[in-house]
């Protein structure tokens, strides 16, 4: 890709305008000279015709040939009179002149000049002199016009293009770290106005992207710190239990050894779940691919209800609503519903009532747990959210379950929100799925 030509805009505009002016002046000079020349030739021809007409009138008065020539000749016009008897009066101008005009006529009138042949020649050297003077005047006037125009252009173009200097100053201030400056054009219907508006829009987008990047960087930094903190707990548990198991004497109590082994398994599973959730979020951030096939929501709800009964036998689980079929990814929709069910079971601590209601474009999971305050109903979907101790489990297992559920809901074109249940507790509502 070739680089942008960066010659001085002032110079380019000035040179272009002067070039156009010179071309116009040259064309005008040629036109004026041609018109002047044509008019001069017309005037010379008219002068010769007038002198011939005068000679015809004088011939009727029967003057002598020399007298007739004296009265016919004038400045720039010479004549010759050839008599019928062969006598010749007057002398013509040298025929070598390329600017010579000649006209002939036979006179009729008095006996002295009757039948004489009159030849008149006109030397338009006077006209040629005037033409040279005109050319000189056009040249001098053109040069003066070019000089005056050049000075005027240097000043006028600098004034006309001053908005570009303002753009340059603003761009340099942005580069130096100062933000918020804008050109704010008064009119956006002109070329410079449209350019300034586009420049301001580019700055808005740039600063918006910069703010978004900084916010994203801050969220990423915070998320990494929280994830490291979350991973530290199970890893520390695994390490402590493993070290305690290694230090047990050969004759240690088998029950104590089994407790330590179970602790290692539980904490390692907890760490593995957190890692899996982090991978799911990474897939969502990268743009997880969502399949599009008919999915029976009622069948998914029944399956999750059965799983909940096995996990928490003392929780009353009911499924209601009409059967709904949507277009989506069955595995991801199952994951959404499973995360919501797990969240509800954790909130109720294994006791209470869980209801899964199926709708044509989603479902609602309601529990009888402590509920979620209105101020926290959006925060609860943040990654690794920290609420008060009684409600930390609302974020789901590793603290990422609800964030993952909302991510996959929005990837399907729907949304997931938290509301208050009619009889107390919380209701998680998934809506906006595409009916099949």
From TrEMBL:
Instruction: Please list the reactions this protein catalyses.
Output: ATP + protein L-histidine = ADP + protein N-phospho-L-histidine
Alphabetized UniProt keyword annotations: Kinase, Membrane, Phosphoprotein, Transferase, Transmembrane, Transmembrane helix, Two-component regulatory system
What EC designation does it have?
Answer: 2.7.13.3
Per UniProt, residues of the Histidine kinase domain are 226-431
InterPro entries associated with the record: HAMP_dom, HATPase_C_sf, HATPase_dom, His_kinase_dom, HisK_dim/P_dom, HisK_dim/P_sf, Sig_transdc_His_kin-like_C, TCS_sensor_his_kinase
Q: Which Gene3D superfamilies match?
A: 1.10.287.130, 6.10.340.10, Histidine kinase-like ATPase, C-terminal domain
Its localization reads:
Cell membrane
Indicate whether DNA repair appears among the record's keywords: no
Q: Name one GO molecular function term.
A: kinase activity
Which Pfam families does this entry report, sorted A to Z? HAMP, HATPase_c, HisKA
HAMP domain residues are 158-211
Q: What is its main location?
A: membrane
| Annotated PANTHER family | SENSOR HISTIDINE KINASE TRCS, SENSOR HISTIDINE KINASE YKOH
Identification of the protein by name: histidine kinase
Query: What organism is recorded for this protein?
Result: Amycolatopsis samaneae
């Amino acid at each position: 890709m070739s680089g942008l030509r960066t010659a001085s805009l002032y110079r380019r505009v000035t040179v272009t305008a002067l070039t156009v002016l010179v071309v116009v002046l040259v064309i005008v000079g040629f036109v004026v000279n041609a018109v002047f020349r044509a008019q001069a030739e017309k005037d010379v021809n008219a002068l010769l015709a007038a002198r011939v007409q005068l000679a015809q009138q004088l011939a009727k008065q029967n003057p002598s040939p020399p007298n007739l020539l004296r009265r016919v000749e004038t400045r720039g016009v010479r004549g010759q009179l050839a008599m019928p008897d062969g006598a010749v009066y007057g002398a013509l101008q040298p025929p070598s002149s390329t600017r010579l005009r000649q006209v002939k006529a036979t006179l009729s009138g008095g006996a002295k000049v009757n039948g004489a042949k009159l030849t008149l020649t006109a030397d338009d050297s006077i006209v040629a002199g005037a033409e040279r003077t005109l050319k000189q005047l056009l040249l001098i006037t053109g040069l003066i016009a070019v000089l005056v125009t050049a000075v005027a252009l240097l000043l006028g173009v600098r004034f006309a293009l001053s908005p570009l200097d303002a753009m340059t100053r603003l761009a340099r201030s942005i580069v130096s770290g100062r933000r918020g400056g804008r050109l704010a054009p008064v009119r956006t219907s002109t070329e410079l106005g449209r350019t300034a508006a586009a420049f301001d829009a580019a700055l808005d987008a740039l600063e918006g992207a910069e703010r978004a990047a900084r916010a994203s960087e801050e969220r990423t930094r915070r998320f990494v710190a929280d994830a490291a903190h979350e991973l530290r707990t199970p890893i520390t548990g695994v390490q402590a239990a493993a070290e305690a198991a290694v230090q047990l004497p050969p004759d240690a109590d088998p029950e104590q050894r089994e407790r330590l082994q179970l602790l290692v398994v539980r904490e390692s599973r907890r760490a593995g779940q957190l890692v899996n959730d982090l991978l799911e979020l990474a897939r969502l951030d990268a743009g997880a691919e969502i399949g599009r096939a008919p999915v029976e929501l009622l069948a998914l709800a029944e399956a999750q209800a059965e799983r909940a009964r096995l996990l928490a036998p003392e929780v009353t689980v009911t499924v209601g609503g009409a059967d709904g079929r949507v277009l989506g990814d069955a595995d991801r929709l199952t994951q959404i519903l499973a995360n919501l069910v797990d969240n509800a079971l954790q909130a109720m601590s294994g006791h209470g009532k869980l209801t899964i209601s199926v709708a044509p474009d989603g479902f609602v999971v309601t529990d009888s747990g402590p509920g979620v305050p209105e101020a926290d109903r959006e925060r609860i979907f943040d990654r690794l959210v920290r609420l008060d101790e009684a409600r930390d489990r609302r974020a789901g297992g590793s603290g990422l379950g609800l964030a993952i559920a909302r991510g996959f809901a929005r990837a399907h074109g729907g949304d997931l929100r938290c509301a208050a249940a009619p009889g107390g507790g919380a209701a998680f509502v998934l809506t906006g799925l595409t009916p099949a």
